[in-house]
Amino acid sequence: MESNFAARRTEDIALDLLKFVASQANVSKPTGSTGFGVTPASKPDDQVSHLLELYARCREAVEAPGASK
User: Beta-carbon neighbour count of residue 14 at 10 Å?
Assistant: First the structure.
């Protein structure tokens, strides 16, 4: 049961990291028409794919043993 708890905790941490990165990068938020910033809105399927890729990268970062040492 302990390993199940640890795995769930890792997933929660990765999800929190995803939320933080997505909010800082303005992912899935419309941009103004000032001529600066991200290209026009992509398709919802593309946005979902990018978020899933980002989540996978967040999990890798959280699960990496000793990466911060």
Answer: 20
Sort 57 into a burial class: Cβ within 10 Å, 0-12 / 13-18 / 19+: middle
Its pTM stands at 0.62
Report the C-alpha gap between 53 and 21 in whole angstroms. Answer: 12
Q: Are 42 and 48 in contact (CB under 8 A)?
A: no
CA angle 56, 59, 63 (to 5 degrees): 140
C-alpha 32/C-alpha 45 separation (Å) is: 22
* pLDDT digits 0-9 by tens, 21-54: 888 887 655 555 554 545 556 788 888 898 999 9
Q: State phi, psi for 26 to the nearest 5 degrees.
A: 55, 40
Task: Give the tokens for residue 66.
Answer: 């000793």
Token output for 45:
């399927």
